[in-house]
Amino acid sequence: MSASDMNATTFKYSATNGIQHEEPLLFEHAHDAPESIHLPGIKGDIPDALAAFVRQKPANIPGLSEPETVRHFVRLSQWNHGIETGFYPLGSCTMKYNPRVNEQVARLPGLAHIHPDQPEETVQGALELLYEVQQWLGEVSGLPHVTLQPAAGAHGELAGLMMIRACLDARGDTERRTVLVPDSAHGTNPASAALCGMHTVELKSGPDGRIDLDELKAHLNDGTAALMMTNPNTAGAFETDIKEICQLVHDAGGLVYGDGANLNALVGLARPGDMGIDCLHINVHKTFATPHGGGGPGAGPVAVNDILAPYLPVPCIVKNDDLYALQHNIKTSIGSVLSSIGQSGVYMRANAYISAFGREHLHKIAEDAVLNANYILHRLKNVYHVPFEGVCKHECLLTDEIQNRHGVKTLDIAKRLIDLGFHPMTVYFPLIVHGAMLIEPTETESRETLDNFCDAMLEIAAKCEAGDTDALHEAPVKPFRRRLDETQAARKPVLVWPQ
Amino acid sequence: MLSYVKKQYTTQEIEGFITLCFLCGDKKDITMRFLPHTDTDRTAMLETMGLSSIDGLFSDIPDEFHLQRGQLDIAEALSEAGIVRKFTKASEKNRNATNTRYFLGGGTYHHFVPAVVDYVISRGEFLTAYTPYQPEIAQGTLQALFEFQTMIARLTGMDVSNASMYEAATATAEAALMARRVSRKNRVVMAGSVNPRYRSVTANYLSRLDGEYEEVDMGCFGTDLKKVIAAIDGQTACVIVQYPDFYGSVYDLAPLREACDANKCLMIVAFSDVSAFALIESPGAMGADIAVGSGQSLGIPMAYGGPHLGLFTCKQKYLRQMPGRVCGLTSDADGKRGFVLTLSTREQHIRREKATSNICTNQGLMCTAAATYLTLMGDAGLTTVARHSAAALQSLVSQLPDHVAALEGAHYNETVLSFADHQARQRFLTAAQADDIFAGIPLEQIAPEQISPEQMDPSAENRHLLVATTEMVEEADINDYLRLLEVAK
Prior knowledge:
The complex is a heterodimer. Chain A is of the alpha/beta class.
């Protein structure tokens, strides 16, 4: 590595030269720890009847003292890249800054330490905040009836399709079981349809990456239950024919399900409900900045129009005069999809995020998110292949077509970004283009960060052009682990540490 | 100082700066502290693209769908201080575990949460990471998941665990679906003593698919295995029981294991307070093929129903039919040990409609919380939690006055108390609440269909209380509870 290269990677980009300790599995810490927690409670006997069932062999949970436990997990944390660590332009995942005040208020004792079955009159404050965010989500989506129950986006898809199916059944349309899904859709869409006892037919995208009206018309028939669409779609493009698309589906007797994963492009500026969408799930861990926690928890509330409102899951949060209540008995409801009213703690944070922007500023989320994505697209478009022309919405889609001529693939570019201090973009999705790189900067990134990222991408492209590609194939070299062997992991799965 | 600032910034930018310093009240002119751009930045970026206004980036949205900005029916913006004030006010309206004693269970339990757990999951590197799709820079999450899977498998006595489900009800439903795939049969038998919410969600998941679903009415507040076994036939894919059951009853599952073997069906064991298995025999030791339930007891606050933690474990041989993400051990290009998400060919992003489940986002951060909790506790701490939880219940039921009856048989930390009639129960609940005790959950609140064996006038029958104890219950709380039972007699 040359001196100038060192300079560039060390100072121009943040890179990854932090302190990184090797840390064994906690099962490998070699000593018996004393019981580290002094627990409250009653030290009495257990009854004889229960004693007959006492566990014969201990579970063998190792246990470490408190200082060791903290050090173990802090060291592990330092191997992670989070949104607080650096840029995280993971397309379709909306990795934006998670305000710390949201964490603080969600932990208030009256919100964190309350039981879902304590009397309703003793949790009016929690119900008030949940009801408020429920109504706001209805307002933002243009679909006024909202359930907070689904625990994540895919769970919302299932609940939404259940409602659509119930509505069709109530109309006597019991043969409508086909869900049309564009080939650019998230994989959860067809999986959710299958779980709802429906089958999917894939729609081939048009040459501009959008839904092709002729293709749609050709597949609409008496068996059509719904179209599941994402708008903006997973190529980051707005479906400009949205009105006609919804009209065609409705005329054919079907309903339109909106995958709200990409709501960040529209929030405060335009509403799916106004466009003809009947049902929309919202990923609040995306649009409303609740932390993703390394894979969850999320929340996938579903907003619906009047047609689908009778089928919402129970219980519903309702307001009667000044009292909030849970309504359980709704005859037409699809029933429950979760054992509680939803991931309440996640909604507290979402409420706080919306509160911070308020009516006056909510649209600035979408404006800055779209501005940032287009800025990146603009800076990279002459160097990376852009499969679909035009402005993008909250994310931009590039491919590795140009770099491929030098033997460099999307994966190499992604891994090199790690060495340069960035989390890679979403790779190889959507499936409709070869070597996809889907970049979503979100509204919470500064111009400085966007420029640094673009400079890094341009530098990678320049190295390809110059044939200087070794560092790309080798990458990443800076993290304390290099490319991991996924084939080995899957062929002979080791999911637990042996006793 | 101000004149210097004025030379450098526009008025709007100064306002933004002031807000950033949290000095601003709840005024209309708040600018957004989470958006790093100044208007100068925005203009410059647009100019780079040859645009004069942001509208140029939204011209692909038909005009008729453009909202007038700032017109939605949403509250006005709040400063950070305003948000804290608003949430504090709402929080103070709620009775909570810092000012009230909890004897509530039914799937959610008030166990002790050590400060270290919340500290670890508040670390931005865990909190603000996405699903570990780039394993080289997500080894922290991945190793924590591997440790979590290992400890959950050990605690439940099962071979393998996945990296979590949403919560216990959906985990139960997914277990039924998995058993159908494994057995290639589609009849599901469910004991009526499984938490009514797990039953209702499972029935809901299955209702749109081919196959039969049968709930076996127990006719008592407990589990009658003879009735469950009688419902199994050759077409049965699986039988689902809860252990300890919804009413807290602990019982031997050996007869069920035999019946399952005889009919080549899977035995699914659900649970609602996993802390039990530090004290009593695990589902694995009882012969479960799949064990699912709630891990909320492992360092996760009640939080009015979530986020909690769904646990999913099974025998090794069924691994490839398991739903959800799993973390596996592997090595990197230099041969060093590392971890990745694996077996993704089961999952929706590859298998689409043929996937084992549609689950994508799970409860990742709650796995890290549980792993931290389990590490702090170890076998010894976990056993203490379980012993104290059971001892508290024993202390309560052994001192009950004559006018209140508890269930017979072995119970871990939950039971049903029966009063003379509805009025007697309500008198007690009211008195207890006035003395800062949530004394139990009226049984019909969770199980509306659960009219007790006598089946008479429902208002007279709503006289049962589901009561749970944990290590957070102290001797004084039991004494108060007993005193109030006498007072409200």
